[in-house]
Amino acid sequence: MTNKILIVDDDDQLVSAYLDYLTQLGYAVDTAGEIEEAQTLLSHFQYGLVITDLRLSRLNFGGLELVKFIRNAALPTRVIVLTAYGWPELKAEAVNEGVDVFLRKPMRLSDLAKNVAVLSGGSA
């Protein structure tokens, strides 16, 4: 599996922080601000991991729609969902759709990195 990561979030500051941090750790990282852009990238490139915000600007829970796209396309991509919403029902739905890790914002970048390492086959 590739260690290439796709970050999907419409918050430019968060994307920049995630991108800088994960790049410093040696990961190849691409970014997308919306679900359509992410779907295009996923259709053309192989990613070992997608890190997506649950709530994207045009869709309430666009992150779940992206997970459905990944699973329906049978892509061998792991998924981390980030959200400020921690409702148990939402987490259960996300896991049911195929999310590997569900993290609540705000979080420490080191916590994100630990989950990325585990899902990428590295050490935590």
Describe this structure as you would to a colleague.
α2 (about 35-45) runs parallel beside α3. The protein has a domain at about 1-70: 3-Layer(aba) Sandwich (Rossmann fold), CATH 3.40.50. The longest helix is centred in the N-terminal third of the chain and has 13 residues, at about 10-25. The protein has a five-stranded parallel sheet, sandwiched between helices. It starts with a strand and ends in a 5-residue tail after the last helix. Helix content is about 45%, strand content about 20%. By secondary structure, the protein is α/β, with parallel strands linked by helices. The protein has helices spanning about 10-25, 35-45, 60-70, 90-95, 110-120; strands at about 5-10, 30, 50-55, 80-85, 100-105. The model has no long low-confidence stretch (mean pLDDT about 90).
Give the arrangement of secondary structure elements.
Blueprint (H helix, E strand, L loop, with lengths): L3 E5 L3 H13 L3 E5 L2 H10 L4 E5 L8 H11 L5 E6 L4 H10 L3 E4 L4 H11 L5
Parallel strand pairs: 1-2, 1-3, 3-4, 4-5
Summarize the structure.
With 124 residues, the protein is α/β, with parallel strands linked by helices.
